[in-house]
Design brief:
The chain is an alpha/beta fold. Among the domains are: 1-127 and 165-260 and 391-416 and 464-528, FAD/NAD(P)-binding domain, CATH 3.50.50; 322-368, no CATH class. It has 15 helices and 19 strands. The chain has helices spanning 25-34, 53-56, 113-126, 136-139, 168-171, 173-178, 228-238, 276-280, 300-306, 324-338, 345-354, 356-368, 418-437, 447-450, 508-525, and strands spanning 2-4, 12-21, 41-44, 61-63, 89-90, 154-161, 182-186, 189-195, 202-208, 215-225, 263-271, 285-287, 290-298, 311-317, 379-386, 395-402, 408-413, 441-445, 491-493. The chain starts with a strand and ends with a helix. This is GMC oxidoreductase. Residues 390-515 form the Glucose-methanol-choline oxidoreductase C-terminal domain. Pfam families: DAO (PF01266), GMC_oxred_C (PF05199).
Length: 528
């Protein structure tokens, strides 16, 4: 069932087996996985079913490090969480991302990619993407051949796309609403995690409406924080009534190791001859219903040889004119289906009619699941999606300013190192060498990337990771391999804040897989 806390009695006390804080991809996945297990669950969500300015403003904070987005625009605070503006990119973390690498400080997970694979397979279905197949050999056929790069330098990786994309709050709302052992509690803001007198176990959470008119308590055998890489550490730090430095913060690790995926336009590629294999790296390709996007990356051999991070490089053609008719047709039929016609509808019809040849050509290639050869002299923008090294000085802190609930706001100090910049530069140089060897093109890096003196001019991708990182050694992390907070018997954390390393893959698929893994663990631990 779904209840609105604003309509409940003041000082309400809810008793449950598991309290999940946050109804985003992680929180909804845990509740969905446990549905039917007879374990009672209270899924606590700060917002409602739609965006609300007052609730969203609780995310306001300060950036005091590397230039970053305004914090209240970097995630969404209502049912479904940030999946409400997710663009559908899916790719698992790679095998190398889980390994301890001598050249990457604090690297290594307490389990392998293989251990997570069963959950990745199921996460693919919940995110509504194709089969769990991410190797070139999984997809290559006679009419779908990728670049034959030297494995000591480069490799091809894939993204798949959730075509809608899947909005967890919309897609799984009815299932949660009908679940007999799950209560979704809307407009309930957690203001404190309640611990026992020794801070060795938690007893529940204290909740409040955003206007503070009503407060209450959710008492639980297990509490799971699933409210993102910025809010998870904030809740631990503000819950300092018993443990003065914050729950789980006995080793001063809560909020540290903040990671993003640095994104940078790293250069321009000019093609030297027509190339169908190169065209696949410039577009989404549909194969057997799966929406695929390949990218070039430094191979694991090259990462070790050059002591660099895992960087993927995507290509974007600067000229889209040859697809005008096709793109206009997509917009036309989307408008017909929805019954909503934009001011550009007339122009779309004109573009369809004026580019019938281009439309037919594009439809031919897409129905075949192949691409038109990329012609000579095509100007391509090269974008680098980088891993960030775990860095304890990159962190979430509490500010002196407070929000409407009286909680300290976030102060984000995002820090990058020379390793990120060098990794992007070396990876792009390897790609340039390989494309030159194959006589496909010439890659010119942006000037500042080649300079040792210039700052790394990277942006982010709204991916907040690492702030309650996983480590079997409590001195190097916040949670253990089962996502339980070190030193606390029944407090767990879900989401990308537990990532030990970031890889270059978008985090949503891994968030869902880890949520399933945690739910499976709790199924064995919690007695209903």
């Amino acid at each position: 069932m779904i209840n609105d806390f604003r309509e409940m009695t003041n000082e309400t006390v809810i008793e449950t087996d598991i309290c999940i804080v946050g109804a985003g991809a992680a929180g909804i996945s845990i509740a969905k996985y446990l549905n039917g297990s007879n374990i009672s669950i209270c899924l606590v969500e700060s917002g409602g079913f739609k965006f609300e300015e007052e609730t969203q403003s609780l995310y306001q904070g300060k950036n005091v490090g590397h230039k970053y987005f305004p914090l209240d625009t970097a995630r969404l605070r209502y049912f479904g969480g940030t999946t409400n503006h997710w663009t559908g990119w899916c790719s698992p973390l790679e095998e190398v991302d889980f390994k301890q690498r001598d050249w990457v400080p604090y690297s290594g997970w307490p389990f392998t990619q293989k251990d997570l694979e069963p959950y990745y397979i199921q996460a693919q279905k919940w995110c509504n993407v194709g089969p769990y197949r991410y190797q070139p050999s999984d997809w290559e056929t006679d009419d779908f051949k990728l670049l034959e790069v030297l494995p000591e330098k480069l490799a091809t990786k894939f993204w798949q796309f959730s075509p809608a994309p899947t909005r967890f709050g919309i897609t799984y709302r009815a299932e949660l609403e009908q679940a007999t052992h799950i209560q979704v509690l809307l407009h309930a803001n957690v203001v404190e995690i309640l611990s026992n007198s020794s801070a060795q176990a938690v007893e529940g959470v204290k909740i409040s409406t955003v206007d503070k008119v009503k407060t209450g308590t959710v008492r639980a055998k297990v509490v799971i924080l699933a409210c993102g890489g910025l809010e998870n550490p904030r809740l631990l730090l503000v819950s300092n009534r018993v443990q003065t430095t914050g729950l789980g913060n006995q080793n001063d690790n809560v909020g540290r190791f903040f990671m993003e995926h640095p994104l940078v336009e790293s250069g321009k590629l000019i093609t030297l001859k027509d190339s169908k294999p190169l065209a696949y790296y410039n577009n989404i390709t549909i194969r057997n219903g799966a929406h695929l996007r390949p990218a070039l990356k430094g191979s694991e051999i090259a990462q070790q040889k050059y002591q660099i991070l895992n960087v993927a490089v995507l290509m974007h053609s600067d000229s889209q004119n040859e697809e005008i008719g096709y793109l206009a047709t997509k917009k036309f039929f989307k408008a017909l289906k929805s019954g909503k016609f934009s001011n550009q509808f007339r122009n779309d019809v004109i573009n369809m009619i004026s580019d019938l040849d281009g439309l037919a050509e594009n439809l031919y290639y897409r129905f075949r699941g192949t691409q038109k050869p990329l012609p000579n002299n095509t100007n391509i923008t090269v974008m680098s999606y980088s891993e960030q090294r775990p860095n304890p000085n990159s962190r979430v802190l509490l500010d002196t300013d407070k929000d409407q609930l009286g909680l300290p706001r976030i102060k984000l100090d995002w820090q990058l190192t020379e390793l990120e910049k060098r990794s992007v530069r070396v990876t792009n140089q390897l790609i340039g060498e390989e494309l030159g060897r194959m006589e496909l093109g010439r890659l010119q890096l942006v000037d500042w990337l080649q300079s040792e003196d210039d700052q790394f001019k990277a942006g982010g991708q709204y991916h907040h990771m690492g702030t309650t990182r996983m480590s079997e050694d409590p001195k190097q992390g916040v949670v253990d391999k089962n996502c339980r907070v070190h030193g606390l018997a029944n407090l767990y954390i879900a989401g990308s804040s537990v990532f030990a390393t970031s890889g270059n893959s978008n985090p949503t698929l891994t968030i869902v897989a880890l949520a399933m893994r945690l739910a499976e663990h709790l199924k064995k631990q919690v007695v209903s």
